[in-house]
Amino acid sequence: MAVSTTDNYILGLYDDEDVLMEAVRTVRKQGVMIEEVYSPFPIHGLDEALGYTRSRLPIAAFLFGILGTTLALTMQIYMMGVDWPMIIGGKDFVALPSFIPVTFELTVLLSALGMVATFLIVSNLKPYGRPRIYDLRSTDNLHVMAINLRSNRLNPAQIKDVLATTQAVEINEKSFDLV
Amino acid sequence: MHIGAPVREPLVTGGKTIKDVTHDISRHVEATPNPRWLLAMAVSIALLAAGTYAVFRTVWDGIGMWGLNKTVGWAWDITNFVWWVGIGHAGTLISAVLLLFRQKWRTSINRAAEAMTIFAVICAAQFPILHMGRPWLGAYWALPLPNTFGSLWVNFNSPLLWDVFAISTYFTVSLVFWYIGLVPDFATIRDRAKGTISRAVYGALSLGWTGGAKTWQRYETVSLVLAGLATPLVLSVHTIVSFDFATSVIPGWHTTIFPPYFVAGAIFSGFAMVLTLMIITRKVYKLEDYITMSHIELMNIVIIITGSIVGIAYITEFFVAWYSGVEYEQYAFINRATGPYWWAYWSMMTCNVISPQLFWFKKIRTSIVATFILSIVVNIGMWFERFVIIVTSLHRDYLPSSWAMFSPTIYDVGVYLFTFGLFFTLFFLFAKFFPVINMAEVKSVLKSSSSTEQINR
Question: Could you list the residue ranges that cross the membrane (chain B) (predicted)?
Answer without folding.
Answer: 37-56, 81-101, 113-133, 160-182, 222-241, 261-280, 301-323, 343-361, 368-393, 413-434
